[in-house]
Amino acid sequence: MYWRRLGRRLDLDHPQTLNEKVLWLKFNTYYKNPLVIQCADKYAVRDYVKACGCEEILNELYGVYHRVKDIDFNALPNKFVLKLNSGCGMNLICTDKHSLSIPRIKRQLRQWMCNVQYLRYSEMHYAAIPKKIICEKFLETPNNAAPDDYKIYCYNGTPHYVMVCIGRDKGRPKFYYFDTAGQLHREMTVEGLAAPADFHYELPAGWNEMLRYAAILSKPFPFVRADFYYVDGKVIFGELTFTPAAGLDTEHLPATDRLLGELIDLKQD
Questions:
Q1: Strand runs labelled E in 137-243
Q2: Where are the domain boundaries for CATH 3.30.470.20 in the chain?
Q3: Reduced to 3 states, what is the DSSP secondary structure of residue 94?
Q4: What is the pLDDT of residues 205-247, one digit of tens each?
């Protein structure tokens, strides 16, 4: 699959890139690491965040459900997000409950509860996670737009790069890499799309605060991406991502893949 998707040979004996090292960690350690398994669970990770003394950054939780039929839609607010506690991309965003097709939503959730996506991509740390559905507060800016997403690449508890995702609700999001000092790195691109020459991004007031939380939460791990939002003057925790794109990310150019990977020290794991 690696050759088919990335067009180059996988070297797990001497991994160099982010993709290669994520695959090495996925196959050798992460699947049997109890803390990784807990923190890959979007519900159980809340206990880890609390244990780290960071409870104040948790998003508001409306409910957790073991079965689709347990969800009481009448008790939920007009706007909310439903998501599976394991895996990737299994989120349902509701911005107006009155226009929601509840039967369709229930069908989709039942399909996800039966999903074994982790087998396709060998993300076996997800296999040990009991499936649940969680319902959280819908996050938006005062202009009713999706907040920017701050994905912080952390190595043994040290944040190094921040990928800022802008306009994810517009259908064509933009991705830009910054170092922790807020300096834009134009050479680091997603899909080869560099920032325009006149691009300027105003760092949020909570930039350093997000970096501080990322350092705390990432400390036990050789690599993890800590995701945050900054809404209404408050840092909100998103998730901890241990295997971005399952180690098969085709959107990074080889130079970016190598730059993000060279900071992972596998000897310490």
A1: 149-155, 158-166, 174-179, 224-231, 234-241
A2: 1-58+140-269
A3: strand
A4: 999 999 999 999 999 999 999 999 999 999 999 999 999 988 8
- Other residues' Cβ atoms within 10 Å of the Cβ of residue 178: 19
Amino acid at 66: H
Do strands 149-155 and 224-231 pair parallel, antiparallel, or not at all (unpaired)? antiparallel
If one looks up domain 1-58+140-269 in CATH, what number appears?
3.30.470.20
> What is the per-residue pLDDT for 49?
99
Rg (CA), the chain: 19
Give the three-state DSSP class for 101: coil
Question: Where do the H-state alpha helices sit in the chain?
Answer: 2-6, 18-28, 34-40, 45-51, 102-113, 117-120, 207-218, 254-261
How many beta carbons lie within 10 A of that of residue 27, not counting itself?
13
Tell me the mean pLDDT in the region 250-257: 86
pTM attached to this predicted model: 0.93
**Mean pLDDT of the chain, nearest integer:** 91
User: Would you tell me how many other CB atoms lie within 10 Å of the CB of residue 152?
Assistant: 24
